[in-house]
Write a structure and sequence with these properties.
This protein has 400 residues and is mainly α. It contains 16 helices and no strands. The longest helix has 33 residues.
Length: 400
């Protein structure tokens, strides 16, 4: 029976890893549909190559930083217990690789390819795993201190803060250092719209992400005996809450409509295992409102050119999710309990602070040493032709 349990657990977490791996196709198509046509190839290539670099960085460095596990042993040792430790690495890799995928959407259309890959290696190999280890592996005694001080540890079941807020706030640092796209904001105060190139592809990306998210959340249990249908239903309720509020506040704009469910899903990750479905619905509704309001302020009032809105979507909705867990996870609010708002606030602030420090350090260093942006000429021509030497839809074929 132990052998069957080990095999079942390995299969369970492997299926979760595959579902979250599929989410990276969602990241790719969401960005492809949002950027202008001359940058579509770049969006597709970035997500794929970022994932490859993330795998190497996390396998050789990051996983050990977070969990103290080394893979420099014989294959016989690695295959023990049906290779559960290996598929656990695969599953958690797909979370780690979401960090550069999130950042990619913010810096789209004007970032150089090489420096972004270097940033990916450092973020996934060092910056992200340090906070991951604090939140999910008792590193540095911070969780023990929080429990002694507040009565509860910082709870983030599936990464509202650990993954999304960290990725979103790193993305904000990168966007601020990179600057706005050429022609986006004029000196006279006028703005160029830079509309999405393909609403169907944007919608496809959002749907792929939403479906994969049920692996992201439910499979965060990591073993079959800990699986909970509560997580699935809470994810569903937050998704629809975010959708409806974003459609209402966004006045039927399809960009808001398809980012609304993602905002809800980002926010519910932390407390999806302890909230009542009604609490999850409210969490998703608030997240939808946060995204629409702050995306509009960011782009129009503050003139921060965050192309896909990764800071409001992941950074702010992720931080809200960390706090919401400490509200709607309480037994007095219909939740299962075991959480504390003070612990959630401290943990969330730590994640945000660490992301800002890491983001400015990594991208600031790269900007000073290598430069982050394409030249104005390359940006005008588009990242597809400037970097990859081919467009998404070549107008003619070479004949001979």
């Amino acid at each position: 029976m132990d052998q069957v349990k080990q095999g079942t657990d390995a299969l369970f977490i492997l299926l979760g890893a595959i579902m979250v791996l599929a989410m990276h196709a969602g990241f790719a198509f969401l960005e492809l549909g949002t950027v202008r046509k001359k940058n579509q190839v770049n969006a597709l290539v970035k997500i794929l190559v970022d994932f490859a670099v993330s795998t190497i960085a996390y396998f050789f460095v990051g996983y050990g930083v977070a969990y103290g596990v080394s893979f420099f042993t014989g294959a016989e040792t690695l295959a023990a217990k049906n290779g559960f430790e290996l598929v656990k690495f695969f599953f958690l890799l797909t979370f780690a690789a979401a960090i550069p995928a999130i950042v990619s959407g913010g810096i789209a259309e004007r970032a150089r390819f090489g420096p972004q890959l270097i940033a990916t290696a450092v973020l996934v190999g060092l910056v992200y795993p340090l906070f991951e280890g604090v939140a999910w592996n008792q590193r540095f005694g911070i969780q023990a201190w929080l429990k002694a001080t507040t009565g509860a540890e910082f709870h983030d079941f599936a990464g509202s803060v650990v993954v999304h807020a960290v990725g979103g706030w790193i993305g904000l640092a990168a966007v601020l250092l990179l600057g706005a796209r050429g022609g986006r904001y004029r000196k006279d105060g006028a703005m160029s719209a830079h509309p999405p190139s393909s609403i169907p592809f944007l919608a496809l990306g959002a749907w792929v992400l939403a479906v994969g998210w049920f692996g992201f959340n439910v499979m965060s249990a990591q073993t079959i005996d800990k699986i909970s249908g509560l997580v699935a239903v809470n994810s569903l309720m937050a998704m629809v809450g975010g959708t409806l509020v974003a459609v209402l506040m966004g006045k039927n704009d399809p960009g808001f409509a398809y980012n609304g469910p993602l905002a809800g899903l980002v926010a519910v990750c932390a407390g999806s295992d302890v909230m009542h479905p009604v609490g999850a619905l409210v969490t998703g509704c608030v997240a939808g409102a946060i995204f629409v309001a702050l995306f509009t302020l960011t782009q129009n009032r503050w003139k921060i050119d965050d192309v896909l809105g990764v800071w409001p979507l992941h950074g702010l909705c992720g931080a809200w999710g960390g706090l919401a867990c400490g509200i709607f996870g309480l037994q007095s609010m219909g939740g299962l309990g075991g959480v504390n708002f003070a612990a959630q606030a401290v943990g969330t602030l730590m994640g945000v602070g660490w992301a800002l420090v890491g983001g400015f350090a990594v991208y600031g260093t790269l900007k000073a040493v290598l430069g982050l942006r394409l030249t104005p000429e390359e940006e005008y021509e588009g990242a597809d032709l400037s970097i990859h030497k081919i467009g998404a839809t070549p107008e003619r074929e070479v004949s001979w």
